[in-house]
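SUBJECT: protein chain
CONTENTS: sequence, structure tokens:
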Amino acid sequence: MKKTYLSKIMLLAWQFRRQTGVDFGECLKKAWANYKVVRRMRNGIAPFLFHEG
């Protein structure tokens, strides 16, 4: 994994943290999930669920 990807994941996790106030560990999990879905979408079809909350 390139260092730039890790940097983007961490920035996204901090954005989630600032916007939601949720524990940083949970935000980091969501940022990783986001990264994995985006990567799969670029390679083809990616199944995912959208949860509005």
In short: The radius of gyration is 12 Å. The chain has a mean pLDDT of 90. Residues 13 and 25 are 9 Å apart (CA to CA). The first helix runs from residue 3 to 20.
